[in-house]
Amino acid sequence: xxxxxxxxxxxxxxxxxxxxxxxxxxxxxxxxxxxxxxxxxxxxxxxxxxxxxxxxxxxxxxxxxxxxxxxxxxxxxxxxxxxxxxxxxxxxxxxxxxxxxxxxxxxxxxxxxxxxxxxxxxxxxxxxxxxxxxxxxxxxxxxxxxxxxxxxxxxxxxxxxxxxxxxxxxxxxxxxxxxxxxxxxxxxxxxxxxxxxxxxxxxxxxxxxxxxxxxxxxxxxxxxxxxxxxxxxxxxxxxxxxxxxxxxxxxxxxxxxxxxxxxxxxx
Length: 267
What we know:
Layout: H1 7-33, E1 39-42, E2 45-48, H2 58-89, H3 117-130, H4 139-153, H5 180-191, H6 198-223, H7 235-239, H8 248-251
C-alpha cells in the first residue's frame, strides 16, 4: 500500500487504525474474561487456569488444522486442532470452550492484516495451558514469544498434508514479520498468485497446519519438562517502545521513535 502524501491524512488514518485495533483487542479480552479467570465458581465447582494438557501427535494435529482451515480459517483452526483432541483426552474445560468464536482472527483479524491468525491462535492455546503471566515472564509468555519469532524466521509453510486439496507446487517464504499483511503479501509476490486464488488459500491452510505442528512440539517438550525458550526479540527493552519483528517492512523511514526515559535522581 502506498503512503499518503498528506501528513494530516496519514496521521488521522493511523489514529483510526490504532483506535480500531484497541477496540478489537478489548472486545476479545472482554469475551474471554468469563472463561480465563484464575478461579471461577460454576455450578458449585471451581474451574482453574491453567488447563490440563496431555501430549498430542504433531502430525495428526497438523492434519486436523489443515482441514479445519477450510471451515474456520487460521486462528480458530489452530485452536480447534488442539482443543478438539483435548476434549476427548481431558474433557472440561475444553468441552465448553467456543473455539469457533475465534474465526475473527482470519486475515490478520477480520481482514485487517494485523497479526496472522496462526500465531495468534497458537498463543491463545499456549497461555491457556501454561497459565497466567501475573508478574514478570513465565513459560507461557516465553512460548508465545518463541512462536512469534519462529513464525517470522521460518520459510513457511513447512507442513505438507497427506490429502492435499491443491497439488500445485509453489515457493515458501520468510515473512520477517508476524503480520498477515506482510506474510501473505510476500508469498503472493513470490508465487504470483492473487489473494482470492485457490493457491493462496491452500498456502495459508498449510501455514496454519505448520503452526499447529510446531506448537504441539513445544507443548510436548513443556509437558516432559524439556522446554527451553529460544527467542531473543526485545524491541521494548532495547528501544523503549513495543514493536513487531521487523517494523521497517511497513514503516520505512517513519518508524516511531520513543522519547528518552527520564533519569532517576540519586538519593
